[in-house]
Write a structure and sequence with these properties.
16 helices, about 40% helix, eight-stranded mixed β-sheet, six-stranded mixed β-sheet
């Protein structure tokens, strides 16, 4: 019987929870569904512990759900070929410790070295997906691997049983009600339009809350602790700690504790509309089958607006209300994203198109399923190189 495949993921936490969120999902899936022995190197264990409460932020090495988690403290260290994995993934082009790279080159059977890139809908990634890059000094070749939305990319992260679990949950009102009640969400809040809100600090949250507060239909907005703190505290009139809640006009805002990833998935499944950010929650919102609005990670010179428009052209070329709301939410095409004017019209149009947005979510899901999931696709490519 051959030895199991070993794989190492190197992750630096830049976007608080997005980077580690993606790497953690990938690591768990590789262990559970593909029997791969995974080592996850992480520089910020405190952020990791927020989404995986069992993680000890002070431990240099520990096991978590079958994954060996190592604290990536610095670029020092001496490694031997036996320390190096069969497949080595650097996430978002991080610099792997030089000693590790040297040991990769010393292996009799060279490691497969992949740079797992960020998700984008831009067309150029199809030409760059799986391209090789030779090391300037060592006998090693790195390949670029892009997640994406077409068959010429690696697809999206998706566990094998994810959609079946989601469908069972969404078709069982009692299960959804019990889950929400466990978070402290009342029956009245569950009867309102349920919105989850996860965004970066520069999002125009106050303007959106004012819009909902002044609306006719009741809205219950659920915000994780530590997100949009200034705007949420202004609405609440008190510190935005987990459990804090207030109702003003048609709007109720409730602060939720940070929850493990499986429970965050259930929150997305249970809500009617999801505001998400970055990459990890953005992908999970797509698998939730609900209308969503994406807050993209900001880049210099507003390059993120180009990426946002590229996704909107793919996802909703014929649903102007979603495109308009998404662009405004991201400050694209407006001089002052904090001004209040126009939000009511944007939200009304978005709500008017909810049936169409639900249909689009189902159609999009089927298209993404045809591509296959990122973990399986990545392993298939890595093994083809070996």
């Amino acid at each position: 019987m051959s030895n199991p495949t070993t794989l190492a993921i190197f992750c630096k936490v830049v976007d608080n929870y997005g980077d580690i969120g993606i790497c953690w999902r990938l690591a768990r899936q590789l262990v559970r569904e593909h029997a791969v022995q995974v080592t996850l190197w992480v520089d910020d264990l405190h952020s990791f512990a927020r989404i995986c409460p069992g993680v000890d932020a002070a431990a240099a090495s520990q096991q978590a759900e079958g994954v060996l988690v190592r604290h990536w403290a610095d670029q020092d260290g001496t490694f031997t070929p036996a320390d190096v994995a069969d497949i080595v993934i650097e996430f978002f082009a991080v610099d792997i410790p030089p000693g590790y790279v040297e040991a990769m080159a010393q292996r009799e059977r060279k490691s497969v070295w992949l740079n797992l890139e960020g998700l984008t809908a831009e067309e150029w990634v199809e030409g760059c997906h799986t391209l090789p890059s030779m090391h300037p000094r060592l006998p090693l070749t790195k390949h670029f691997y892009f997640p994406g939305f077409t068959g010429k990319t690696g697809g999206l992260l998706r566990e094998r049983d994810l959609l079946d679990e989601r469908t069972r949950f969404q078709e069982d009102p009692a299960a959804a009600a019990a889950f929400l009640s466990g978070l402290g969400i009342t029956a009245a809040e569950q009867a309102a339009l349920k919105v989850s809100l996860f965004c970066y600090r520069h999002a125009p949250v106050s303007a959106l809350l004012d819009c909902w507060q002044q609306g006719q239909a009741p809205v219950a907005c659920f915000v994780p602790e530590g997100v949009a703190t200034e705007a949420v505290e202004a609405f609440l009139g008190r510190p935005a700690t987990a459990g804090a809640v207030a109702t003003r006009g048609a709007l109720t805002v409730r602060v939720l504790p940070f929850v493990p990833q499986p429970d965050y998935d259930r929150l997305l499944w249970a809500c009617d509309v999801n505001f998400v950010r970055g990459e990890d929650s953005f992908v999970r919102a797509q698998w939730a089958g609900r209308p969503f609005v994406w807050h993209i990670y900001p880049q210099d010179d507003n390059l993120h607006h180009k990426k946002l428009r590229a996704f909107l052209r793919r996802y909703c070329p014929d649903i102007a209300s979603l495109a308009d709301l998404s662009l405004r939410w991201n400050g694209a095409g407006v001089k002052d994203n904090t001004e209040e004017g126009g939000w009511a019209e944007l939200w009304t149009a978005f709500q008017r198109d909810r049936d169409g947005l639900l249909a689009r979510a189902r159609d999009w899901e089927n298209r993404m399923l045809e591509i296959g999931d990122l973990a399986a696709n990545l392993l298939h490519f890595a093994r083809s190189l070996r």
